[in-house]
Design a protein that fits this description.
This protein is an alpha/beta fold. The protein contains 17 helices and 20 strands.
Amino acid sequence: MAEANPTGARRTGGPGTTEAFDAVVIGAGVAGMYQVYRLREKGFRVRGIEAGSGVGGTWYWNRYPGARVDSQAYIYQYWFSEELNKAWNWSERFPAQPETEAYLNFVADHCDLRKDFDFNTRVTSARFDESTRRWRIETDTGETLDTKYFITCAGMLSAPLSAAFAGQDSFEGQVFHTARWPKEGVALAGKRVGVVGTGATGIQVIQTIAGQAGHLKVFMRTPQYIIPMRNPKYDDADREAHKAGFQAMRQRVQRTFAGFDYDFPERSFHDMTVQERRAVMEEIWADGSLSFWLASFAEMFVDPAVNEEVSEFVREKMRERIKDPELAAKLIPTTYGFGTHRVPLETRYLEAFLRPDVELVDVREAPIECIVPKGVMTADGTVHELDILILATGFDAGTGALTRIDIRGRGGRSLKDDWNADIRTTMGLMVHGYPNLFTTAAPLAPSAALCNMTTCLQQQVDWITDCILYMESQGHRVIEPTKAFEDSWVAHHDAVADATLVTKTDSWYMGSNVAGKPRRLLSYIGGVGGYRQKCEDVAARHYEGFSLAR
């Protein structure tokens, strides 16, 4: 194991110092690690900045009970090295957080990446200096980094909504947001525990701690469609088969709709009989993966009748597991269609509510009013007394990681102000008005929500790296998308989005979970393969739509 920077110590100088780099990268997750690796291997002087004490990104921060990846292990990986693939052995189809974090640490060790990161460090501000045409980046350690290229790999779900309710500070018990779960864990035995939120994270927490806590109260506003996870353990034969198919899989995931190894069938929903459609749904349902959402019928995203037939199939599957009509009415969605929200995988989540020590609090009937010293007060005046409050309240997705930093572009314009008015990017890779600022997992690209993240993040890093190499080879100092090109991308993005049912539903996909956030589908829904082709076309035309200057 590499011993470079084993304690997560900072690498740059002390407070008040300024150090120059070719590129500065925010984040040591899947994208940030790969971006630092790519640029370093091309000879650039690059520095990564990471708020945590180690690598892993999402899998460093999200260590709540039950945290587990819901992309298959054999595609949730790096594709730049078959050697890495052969050296790592996954234990199961959908690994838990510790295993995924261990994998990313293995990659960091293998590529000796820690020496290129400042850990325990946050970027507080970044300003583009028009006189030098470089970025000046300030950190919370008092250091200044001077860089030509500023690349954000901060993640699309990394700005937790932790101050969720009035009076939260008055609570006499313990409060934890799932995205900031203590490394040492939390003692739940015998405690009165409340969980607020039933999205993908909340579901993982609830199904895991039901039976661990003394009594569990689940505060639910929006019931979720769910897919039962099928998670077999891998043996040596399974692992060897996946390793043998590495190159084919590497090519496959780049061109599918959502960056997985599965895709929508060519045969139309409307060309099948009711019986044939039922057979297809039963078969894909049994797979126990996100394929039921992302590889069954593409028509369910645009055709209300198709969506209702698929939705009713899922409701039927859920009813089979909940015999209590009153409970079923609360847990089974009816006000929106399947697939228009993020669809979670689960393991006996519904059965958790059949336990005598688990209680469902429907906050549609009586919304949470505030937090009081003894617990949660709902609008009907009830105080739900708790010892521990777990907030699975989500994130300021897509934008929050960057709007929490004071980023200033040309003329001192503020990215926070710009995005508070209108969420716009150019292909999710750059923003007009912010020269030499590259973004991954930013709005208006599949990587913002609708993609197996390792597929899309690596694609974006490769595009950014190739763009920088092109600039250097041509002697260019500055690149920025033109307003006209950004306008055309936003218009295209919206036209594709507005043709779907996703934009008709309130969810974090639309920014609906953050008060005052501009309403726009955060993720490009035109498909990973199509998006990749558009990116390749722009590069092949020497970055048409971007202004390059020497």
